[in-house]
Please model this.
Amino acid sequence: MKNNKVYRLFLLKGNRKNPADAEQMYVKRMAADQPKGSWTDFHLPEPHAYLWLPERGADEARVDYLLRVRTWGRRWADKARALPGSRWALTDLEWQDAEAVRALAESFLLNLYVFDTYKAERKAAPELTAVEAEGVTAADLTAMRERAAEVNWVKSLVERPVSDLNAAAFAREMAAHLKPLGVTAKLWTRKEMEKAGMGGLLGVNRGSVDEPAFAEFIYKPDNARNAKPVVLVGKGVVFDAGGMNIKTGNYMDDMKTDMAGGAMAAGILALAAKQALPLYIVALVPATDNRLNGNALVPGDIIRIGGETSVEIVNTDAEGRLLLADATAYAHKHYAPAAIISMATLTGAASRAIGTKGIVAMRERWPEAMAQCLERASEDVQERYCLFPMWPEYDRELESAVAELKNCGSGVAGMITAAKFVGHFAGKTPFLHLDVAGVAYYDKDESAWRKGATGMGVRWIGRFLELWSKK
Ligand SMILES: [Zn+2]
Model:
């Protein structure tokens, strides 16, 4: 169903609720032959709506304010989705804060996404056709649309159930999306995984009836500023039952989302390629489901990562780090990278620590200039993160009596010991680890994010790479 009407949303400041003021302002600012607005305050489907946006509080941090503005963008998208196929134009009458207008518009675009593949009736998504505001160009709107499209693509992968997206299908989907953007895609065979000694990925896959996948995506533009790549490593567990240490209660409900880190890595690479960033970037996504089968890993098993380091399995539900370790070991050996960034829905500890409000981050040997880029990028896109330490004392948590390492610690600081485990395979490479377990998937709407897959982190690390490319 296509709706030809263009709905206009006018932005006004503060808490005034007088429609006459808005009318006057509208007539004054806009050409006289434009249709007059009627005050609806979101009472749709009137053709015009006014949105009185809150002003920034005296003590309010800029980033907090912009996140609040994004929450309005989500509400606006909720209203617009009730009008399938509707087209929208945003007009700033008096707000005059280009960054905030962009935040509002981008949030709208991000929140239009709905996972409706399995619905009988699939409604046409609304569109944002114009943003009329000082300091916001048509190119800005195009860039926002492109960024939102990548984030929404990531969401669409995260939402898909394992019956529809097993490891091989996941790898193929990512390759099909990335190749037209100029990215080289290598999908490994099992033989190649065996040759590289990927005992983590192959070990976890023993519990599956499906083949594992290892996807290697290379974006290397001619004008790349870095000779050594930045390597993104993303966990691609397409379903996590926990293996023999099976998940109990409702902990298994949303485990189709356990490949969110892998989708995130692919989404970040897609964004970089679309923006034609002059950076050499590689994304590695090891993928399998973690289930129970006759020959599944059991506690006490000892596997080898990268064909070398022996690891005692103490809990088969700590499987993501085994895949990430294989990929990290390969990245370190094969690419000698400038940096490794791993990303994963890895631990319940991360979401217990800071809930659903941000990404848990840990890093080692991370250069100060790059730390500044991370911080600035987070503020620019209003995606939050919180740093946790990687003190050497935590290494003791991973000491095994029978192998060089064990795959999880004593149960405290689980997000840190998981990061330590993966980081062990990064050698001396600057290493950043992002635990998105608390934020990849929301049970309910929260501030700027709709319930379901969030794609959080794609814009943050995407922006970070953009800043890095200018360093
Ligand atoms: Zn698990």
